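pinging the channel bc i need a second pair of eyes. not urgent but kinda urgent?? the chain im working w is below, pasted from the shared doc
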Amino acid sequence: MIGKKVKLRITFLFLSFISLVLIVFLIIKSLEENVVYFKSPSEIISLAELTNKKVRIGGMVKKDSLEINAEEIRFIITDFKNEISVSYSGIIPNLFEEEKGVVAEGYIQDRKFFVAKKILAKHDENYMPPEIKKALEN
């Protein structure tokens, strides 16, 4: 025969365990919706099927591929094996230029075309802002 205190403890532990499982499930589910996968142009070309999920594509901006007009900016991201054309409407970062690293976040239209919603310019560990570089030169 189980006493009243033992039944109360078992009930408390059971409810605590169920609550913990529910909390972990909700956290994982909310993180799953906010995850953005990073892919290279070669990985996108080799995808089995295309999804409508947000993706980040990284690589180098191909030389002589940058086209800027009033509505959009078009350029090609390459990983030196494959290329993907990118279309972007918005303000580009100051570090964005040809033959530099870039990460574009957006949606894949097909294996050769990407619509970016955000552009993130990359730099290496030797980067120094122009203002600091001028100050050091003086």
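so DSSP finds three helices and seven strands in the chain. and Strands lie at 37-39, 55-61, 67-68, 73-78, 83-88, 101-110, 113-121. — does that match what u expected or am i reading it wrong
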